[in-house]
User: What shape does this take?
Amino acid sequence: MSIKVYIDQGHNPVNPNAGAEGNGLREQDVVFEIGVRLAAILNASGNYEARLSRPTADTQLGTSNATSLSARTNAANDWGADYFISLHCNASVDPSATGTEALVYSASGRSYPLAQNILLGIVNATGLNNRGVKLRPGLYVLRRTRMPAVLLELGFISNPTDAALLSGSPELFARGIFNGMNRYFGF
Ligand SMILES: [Zn+2]
Assistant: This one.
């Protein structure tokens, strides 16, 4: 049996729920590309079955910020996903802020060790620094998913080095997440 992974590429192409911008990039475009690559790698492996929240670049979910988020958690819940991975980019007013981090609902669930392994996979693949796993029980997509969920802040779109990696090497992020998942599942 393959593991069903719902990959949520954060945000929408345009408002409502458009993403952060920095260094000439838009978060929604960066995570769209990484998600497409991650789904392809997962589906090709034979161990996973992946679905994307935004299968095409112009997929627009919901008609408000709230319904954009609920469309994603409803799709994952209705499908019966085993795991939910949400892809985002961080942003800061401080352009020196850098690195990758993961957000989970609680420290006691399976999402926590999964997130730790995914972060290791990403930092090994990209060379970015590891900002660790943080608890964010208030986040909608972590709260309303019925399966273990990890929200990845892959890098800072506001940092020139992170931004160049995010846009220039989406395959590295996809491969890093895949490696981390394999390590967690023992594949
Ligand atoms: Zn975001």
